[in-house]
Amino acid sequence: MTFNDELQSFQNSNSQVFFALYTDWFRQIKRQLRRIGLTHPQVQVLAALQDLNNHEEEVTQVMVAKAANIDPMTASAIITKLARADYLDRFPGKKKLRTKALSINQNGQKRLAEALQILHDFEKDYWKDQNPNRRALMQDVKNRL
């Protein structure tokens, strides 16, 4: 296979088609969440924290990272930003004093509720969008599955 053949194969690969659709989806969702000053990973962390707070006595950063499906170091940076924005509280853990326990606060719950509504509306509208380029991307991904 020549270099040009390999290049064409890459350009037409399932991965590239999926990446194009993901990139479009991510740009659109980023624009929607920007209205309330959050990123999609921040919403993932807040949602994971809320869910864990509903079911666990004590929630740690590691638990949130795992539940949000985010790398622990990335989760740490997001949690720090969310704490500074007053969306969650950190306090000494009961089980391990060195560990910080986390809890979503009232501000965080309010912002999460706004984000979930935005995401609900976005998901409903995005996948039924009549934009010809997006519809072609979606159809291409479906055809390849």
UniProtKB/TrEMBL annotation:
Residues 1-145 form the HTH marR-type domain. The lineage of its organism: Bacteria, Bacillati, Bacillota, Bacilli, Lactobacillales. The keyword RNA-binding does not apply. It comes from Fructobacillus fructosus. Coiled coil: none annotated. Keywords: DNA-binding, Transcription, Transcription regulation. The keyword Transcription regulation applies. InterPro entries: HTH_MarR-typ, MarR/SlyA-like, WH-like_DNA-bd_sf, WH_DNA-bd_sf. This is MarR family (MarR). It comes from the Bacteria.
